[in-house]
Hints:
Elements: H1 3-18, H2 37-51, H3 57-61, H4 66-78
Amino acid sequence: MTKETIxxxxxxxxxxxxxxxxxxxxxxxxxxxxxDSLDLIEFVMECEKHFQITISDEAIESLSTFNDLVNLIANxxxx
Length: 79
């Protein structure tokens, strides 16, 4: 799965779950601009379910941007 495809899926998930349109902002902006810590955990859990992967708590804590999450998902899928 390409990073572009992952990003498209994430945009849909974020829109469905929080009503946020990721296409309207820069994916390199700080993730906490759009999601508080609880929302981030819920979003990551939804991504884990959708992409059938597991993301460690340490990895979640290291996230700065949505692009970081895209890269994390891409690496988890590739394993």
